[in-house]
């Protein structure tokens, strides 16, 4: 299930669900094309796509699921079928954010786009005393930069030996970013790895396997804009959670926000509603011992609730916003993930394709 089958005209590619994004990008780079896929090396092609999929190219083309042409699926009754804009259209809708509730997806056909030989991208790491300056720079970037090829991700990380470590990932989909990131230039990092490099090399360097032997959870809230009070609330929650690490076998706390432009203009009819271009605030916690599971799960939910209250006060939260499935905590309800209307539609589709609840055996979010 690791096939990479590029069409003759190079406008679409079929990717097997056994691939990681790093593997897919490496193969596609040989033909000078790319897809709207994952931003780090570890996640699999299937999981990210079925949850919606935010990408370094989302500003330009939408979510990963918006660029899917066809899903190849084995239904719970064993039937092999396809879902597209013209065939099994309800199933096509459901698989765009509806995760693993409807069958086993074996491969996906994506639209492709030309990829420049090099992009300007990388990571900068800072000491904690630079946090406020970075919050200001991120707010300025989100408010002023309109080039869809430019993107940043700010994360504030808490570690057992370091109270607060800001990290900024910068990406420009081309070799010359111009002054897109000028607001960060006066803030001196302790390490800087931003330079011209192949897209596949950049993503491969963003490893997520470092925490694969930890326990972990994440949660998220969506907002319509990035403001300084919102960023300060994220910092406050990261510092609060980091202070609990020694008592609860903590190994990492990470909080951040993803500024995007109006990617909702590319939104298709999808289980995960994103026509309003929601921006993601996320918190992730990792720890070592099972006895601390309840503490960290409850804590990350409380922290996101606190950040949401700030977003409401700032006027940047909409009742129509839902929790992004790939970041949401495990007991998030179908209505919280998809909204009332989409949740009802997904339940009807699931009853049609999986009346016996076979896919419930795979775990994951419940639609009930």
From TrEMBL:
Domain FAD-binding PCMH-type stretches: 1-115
Sequence similarity: Belongs to the oxygen-dependent FAD-linked oxidoreductase family.
Organism field: Diaporthe ampelina
Gene3D superfamilies in alphabetical order: 3.30.465.10, 3.40.462.20
InterPro entries per the UniProt record, alphabetical: BBE (IPR012951), FAD-bd_PCMH (IPR016166), FAD-bd_PCMH-like_sf (IPR036318), FAD-bd_PCMH_sub2 (IPR016169), FAD-linked_Oxidoreductase (IPR050416), Oxid_FAD_bind_N (IPR006094)
Protein name: Putative fad binding domain-containing protein
Keywords tagged on the record: FAD, Flavoprotein, Oxidoreductase
UniProt GO molecular function: FAD binding; oxidoreductase activity
